[in-house]
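Re: the 101-residue chain
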Amino acid sequence: MKNTIDWISRISENGEAPLSAFTDKIAAISAVSPGAFGGYRGLIPLRLFLSNIGITVVPSQIAINDGFNAFKEDGSLKSEHHQKLLGKAVESLLKTKIHTT
């Protein structure tokens, strides 16, 4: 992810400023991991990094543990708790988008 952001942030041939691709962007972050913390530890530096390049990161986030077993065959989450957390993050993202436009 960091490498992708580095490439996107390069100055383009049309003279855009560095990081202009991230101006006025809003993000919700999440992680899935087979471990007990579900990638939570990675969300902390990700939030900080995205904020530092000008992206508004919504407060709600989700870290899903036991990632190999967290999803049903159709791709939906098995856990009702995880479904609620994901819904809260998406709702927060949509509300933030509405208030900033």
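The chain has a mean pLDDT of 89.
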